[in-house]
């Protein structure tokens, strides 16, 4: 099975509004799904327990193909399982926008080319109103083709709302470098193989 793309420069997509706070990693990927042979196979199990409800947002066809998840406060709290990031990537998401993240989830996400974008509460409200609807009420009758699109630009470190207004965000410089270049920490170290070999020769 093909590995998900590692690089992230710019993404334009509709957003999926999962308007809940304190979404923990067991809700993102229940523990019974953790025994897998390949990480990308976790995608269909993302939010498995909530998907039993046909009204759950990810069960709405209008959001098929969306790559940005818009959620609330303290997303990814709970256990440290890296499978949560794998499940979201397997489900097609490239970015999660929230007002805060669990620290370990944030690191796991960045290592798996899933961009966590943290906005202030006021920025979050603005984005929610433009990209989803006033007060977060989803218009289920509006076709996906009419859904406003949001752009995340990692080079400029901004989220561009449908109106064109930019909302700045921050990512630690090393993670940003790796995402822009499509490399992980091991790839980064291996890029210095020649220098490491020369050092070993000189100091062996």
What would a concise description of this structure say?
The chain has 204 residues and is of the alpha/beta class.
Topology readout:
Blueprint: E1 10-13, E2 15-17, H1 25-28, E3 68-70, H2 83-90, E4 95-98, H3 103-111, E5 115-118, H4 121-131, E6 150-153, E7 158-160, E8 166-168, H5 173-181, H6 185-190, H7 193-203
Parallel strand pairs: 2-3, 3-4, 4-5
Antiparallel strand pairs: 1-6, 6-7, 7-8
Task: Summarize this structure as a short list of keywords or feature phrases.
204 residues, globular, alpha/beta, Aconitase, domain 4
Structure description:
The longest helix has 11 residues, at 121-131. The protein starts with 9 loop residues before the first strand and ends with a helix. With 204 residues, the protein is α/β, with parallel strands linked by helices. It is globular and about 65 Å long. The chain has one domain: Aconitase, domain 4 (Alpha-Beta Barrel). Strand 4, helix 3 and strand 5 (115-118) form a beta-alpha-beta unit. The model is unreliable at 134-145 (pLDDT under 50). The chain has helices at 25-28, 83-90, 103-111, 121-131, 173-181, 185-190, 193-203; strands at residues 10-13, 15-17, 68-70, 95-98, 115-118, 150-153, 158-160, 166-168. The strands form two sheets. The protein has a four-stranded antiparallel beta sheet, with no helix packed on it. It contains seven helices and eight strands, in the order ββαβαβαβαβββααα. Helices cover 28% and strands 14% of the residues.
